[in-house]
Design a protein that fits this description.
Blueprint (H helix, E strand, L loop, with lengths): L4 H12 L12 E11 L5 E8 L1 E4 L9 E4 L3 E7 L2 H9 L5 E3 L5 E5 H4 L4 H9 L8 E5 L3 H5 L9 H8 L10 H9 L6 E9 L11 E12 L2 E6 L1 H10 L7 E5 L8 E18 L2 E17 L8 H29 L6 H8 L1 H7 L3 H4 L4 E12 L12
Parallel strand pairs: 1-6, 1-7, 7-8, 14-15
Antiparallel strand pairs: 1-2, 2-5, 3-4, 9-10, 10-11, 12-13, 13-14
Helix pairs in contact: 8-9, 10-11
Length: 391
């Protein structure tokens, strides 16, 4: 009996193994890497999926292993009354099953963003295949056009979006963050804007090259897109929301100081926003602390001299303050609190927020924004003196 015990144990354990009961073969799935959503003139939803269909290449015979290769992507679109309806219509066109957990980006066209975004969020929250860390982006044209873009270097458009999001000079919003914006008190939603733009390099064949680029952000009031901010205005939002991680700032030196330009890169940045009552309105106090490294000096100013260094710091200070004020004016213009001023008031003085929450967005026009930046240049590079012409 003792000798047969191991055999019985092995047989018993084998009964618990499921083997390939619910296997998902890579040759049976169409992997979704990006999703595009548009509202048609008929009112129906148009859903576009960017598929990366893996195929096995190389030696797959006995004794040899194959490798998976991804194509540059294939965009398939269809429409429906709901997202799920459109998904089913797309599935009918495909010989493989739609596989959604690898979706990296959700691009929303202006036509849908200006109608009702809340109507589409239910699907993504409810579906068990949704990747909540997918990026959410707006585009001024059709979302399907963004997905159809053919990259020159990356294999998939989703890869370009992921790389663009790595820079510290753009807002980046994931799906879970986007949903939370609608649930939080005192803040309106926003998302980065992506467009197809002319490339900054020229083709030897004189072909017109294009590239995908984040060109600012779209801001909402309630559940509808209300307006756009360009790239410079978006930088102001990053300062306001304490989300500036990196970025280059270039300032012009006045002619009376010799002219030229100086560029510095943000190394550290910290922002603080406070709201206080002032009569029937509010004062929004913004304070910024940042450290810069100088990377280029095209002016005749010697940065080893303290007075010149202090002067250049003041130029960077005014540049940052102007960016922030420009973003604040956009919030007043669109009457939408994407900055989160109401959120700050709610967290610090909930009683005051309760009194003024009605008509809050409209009251932004009466707010007084007081912005102050403190800039400290830490390093000026390997040389102190600029290169000048020999006398």
């Amino acid at each position: 009996m003792a000798k047969s015990a191991p055999v019985i144990a092995v047989i018993a354990l084998a009964c618990l193994l499921t083997g390939c009961w619910s296997r998902t073969e890579v040759n049976d799935i169409a992997i979704v890497t990006a999703t595009g959503l548009d509202r048609l003139k008929s009112g129906r939803l148009k859903v576009s999926l960017l598929l990366a269909v893996p195929r096995t290449v190389g030696n797959t015979g006995q004794g040899g292993g194959g490798e998976l290769e991804q194509t540059s992507g294939w965009v398939v679109s269809d429409e429906g009354e709901t997202i799920m309806d459109a998904f089913r219509n797309i599935q009918k066109k495909l010989p493989r099953n739609i596989f959604y957990p690898h979706n990296r980006a959700i691009v929303i066209g202006e036509s849908l963003a200006k109608s009702d975004i809340l109507a589409i969020l239910d699907f993504f929250q409810r579906s068990r295949q949704t990747q909540m860390r997918s990026y959410v982006l707006f585009t001024k044209k059709e979302a399907a056009d963004i997905l159809r873009f053919k990259p020159k270097f990356e294999k998939l458009t989703a890869e370009i979006i992921k790389e663009e999001m790595k820079t510290g000079v753009n807002v980046h919003v994931r799906l879970n963050e986007f949903i939370n914006m609608f649930l939080e008190t005192g803040r309106e939603a926003y998302a980065p804007r992506i467009e197809v733009v002319p490339a900054e390099v020229k083709s030897a064949s004189k072909e017109k090259l294009t590239s995908l680029k984040l060109t600012g952000m779209g801001v909402m009031r309630g559940n509808r897109l209300i307006g756009w901010l360009n790239a410079e205005e978006t930088r102001g939002v990053l300062w306001l929301r304490d989300e500036m991680e990196e970025g280059v700032i270039t300032v012009d030196i006045p002619d009376e100081r010799g002219g030229g330009k100086i560029s510095g890169e943000v190394q550290k940045a910290r922002s603080r926003l406070k709201v206080r009552r002032a009569g029937q309105s509010f004062i929004v106090d913004v304070r910024v602390e940042t450290e810069l490294d100088i990377y280029e000096n095209q002016s005749p100013l010697s940065l080893k001299e303290l007075n010149n260094l202090t002067y250049v710091e003041s130029l960077f200070k005014h540049d940052i303050e102007n960016r922030i004020l420009t973003a604040c004016r956009k919030a007043q213009q669109y009457e939408t609190d994407f900055i989160g001023i109401g959120r700050s008031l709610y967290m610090t003085h909930p009683g005051q927020w309760k009194q003024h929450r009605s008509g809050w967005n409209e009251s932004l026009r009466t707010f007084d924004f007081q912005v102050g930046a403190n800039v400290h240049i830490v390093r000026v590079g390997m040389i102190n003196e600029p290169i000048t012409e020999r006398e």
